[in-house]
Amino acid sequence: MNQAEVDPTQLLKGVLDLAVLAVLAEADSYGYDVLRRLRENGLDHVGDASVYGTLRRLYQAGALNSYVVPSDEGPHRKYYGLNNRGRKALDQSAQTWVSLSKALNHLLNGRSNGHGK
Amino acid sequence: MASNNQADDVATYAAAVRAALSNLPTDQSEVLLEDLEDHLREVAAEAEGPLAERLGPPEQYAQELRSAYGAAHAGGRRQAAALHDLRRAVGWVTASAWYRQVRAFLPELRPAWWVLRAYLLVLVITVAFSPSYNIRPIPNPFSSRGLLEIIAMAIAIVVSVRLGRRNRPLAKSGRMLAVAANVLIALIAVPALASMGTFHPFTMVESGGSGQTIQGQQLYTPSGVVTNIYPYSRDGKPLTDVLLYDQDGRALTLDSKTGDATTDYPVGADGQQITNAYPLHQRHLSGDPVAAPRVALPPWPAQTPTVSPTPSPTPSPR
């Protein structure tokens, strides 16, 4: 890979917390399901280990609660959901992201406009 | 794919991931990998194909896991290579199927330990209060002492099992204390078990700790430890400085630490102490010589000077 090119996985790494929190804000979910929903929303480059590691870290940081749901067919599933701290973290991170993306979009639009002429 | 193969695949893959992360500090890797197997099982259940094909090589998966868990956590704290290898080895062992089977089975042995610890506790107490008492695996119920021991064991077992079955979880400090008490019982029981006699009326036990002075044995009879031997001639005269040897021609030496008397051994021409000359010259701690016991000598028949006077089949080694 060209060193100057931005690696999508590197880019994603910084916002994966936010993405995972957002997915869990919709509905409680288990590891593989979180991954699937991220991919359904267009985050194709996210890896299974990244999601699992992120879930464990957020859980360890006290942003998530978790519970095991037994299933008749297949393995028992460990569900994660947002607690108050997680919701607060999501709100704050979302604000940061919105202002960051606004700034970045502005920069990129300026560049593409200027380049286009 | 057969579910058995799938389970193997999960176990193998998880073991490799754990091994690759074995240099993480234990507390971190525990939190991170707590339900790795559960998670991989989910992944495996979602679609066909070996995990390594779908998730990439386990080392790469581990790397991604480590970086997602947080650079701060993944920590650059490099550990010594030996320690790293050790953790890696421990990681392999703890991730192996047989280890998990043993771990899963161990809790079923708990009740056995509850009974055993009660037994060992009574044993230790018995030894502590009567060092010269010849303890046995199962006390003789026809002696008052053995009966007492058996009753004490029964009570201790009931109490121990009750303690073990109690569901109320202990506070952390209480749990530590309980674990320490259990380990202590197990450790103290080792020397007690080592001094345990068998069912033979006479037992020779190598004494473990006699380092600097005389290497001797403890000789037991059913009524206690032998501390001295008094030989008599056929006509009832006490003999002195009789050298005794066992069936292999080894000097028969009693443990000099036994009892509360000190022993003065004669010194040979070569400067070595002669430790198997009986009776031993013993002194009480007060300095008074230990008096010979009164013995009841058997009446010999008038003739038969040729028949061996003792039932011992052992010919003299000299």
Please, could you describe this protein's structure?
- The complex is a heterodimer of chains A (117) and B (318).
- Chain A is mainly alpha-helical and 117 residues long.
- Chain A has a single domain (8-116), classed as Arc Repressor Mutant, subunit A (Orthogonal Bundle).
- Chain A has helices at residues 8-26, 31-40, 48-60, 84-116; strands at residues 29-30, 64-69, 77-82.
- In chain A, helix 2 packs across helix 3.
- Chain A is globular, with a radius of gyration of 17 Å.
- The mean pLDDT of chain A is 84.
- In chain B, the strands form three sheets. A three-stranded antiparallel β-sheet of chain B has the order 1-2-3, with no helix packed on it. A two-stranded antiparallel ribbon of chain B has the order 4-6. A two-stranded antiparallel sheet of chain B has the order 5-7.
- Chain B starts with a helix and ends in a 34-residue tail after the last strand.
- At the A-B interface, helix 3 of A face helix 3 and helix 5 of B.
Strand proportion of chain A: 5-15%
Low-confidence stretches of chain A: none
% residues in beta strands of chain B: 5-15%
CATH class of chain A: Mainly Alpha
Tally of distinct domains of chain A:
1
Largest sheet of chain A: 3 strands, antiparallel
| Shape type of chain A | globular
Strand neighbour order, sheet with most strands of chain B: 1-2-3
The helix content of chain A is: 55-70%
* Rg value of chain A: 17 Å
- Poorly predicted regions of chain B are 71-79, 198-214
How large is the count of helical segments of chain B?
11
Strand order of the largest sheet of chain A: 1-3-2
Quick check: average pLDDT of chain A?
84
Percent helix of chain B: 40-55%
Q: What is the element string of chain B, with H for helices and E for strands?
A: HHHHHHHHHHHEEEEEEE
Termini of chain A, distance in Å? 30 Å
